[in-house]
Amino acid sequence: MPNPQQPHGPLRSFGRIKSRPIKARQAALFDSLLPSIAVPETPFDPLSLKPHAKAVWVEIGFGGGEHLAGQAAQNPDVLILGAEPFQNGVASALRHLEEAGAGNARIHPGDGREVLANLPDASVDRLFVLFPDPWQKARHNKRRLVNADFLAEAHRVLKPGGAFRFATDWADYADWTLERVLASGLFDWQAGRADDWRTPPADHLTTRYEEKKLGDIAPVWLDFLRL
Ligand SMILES: C[S@@+](CC[C@H](N)C(=O)[O-])C[C@H]1O[C@@H](n2cnc3c(N)ncnc32)[C@H](O)[C@@H]1O
Question: 112 CA to middle of ligand 1, Å?
Answer without folding.
Answer: 9
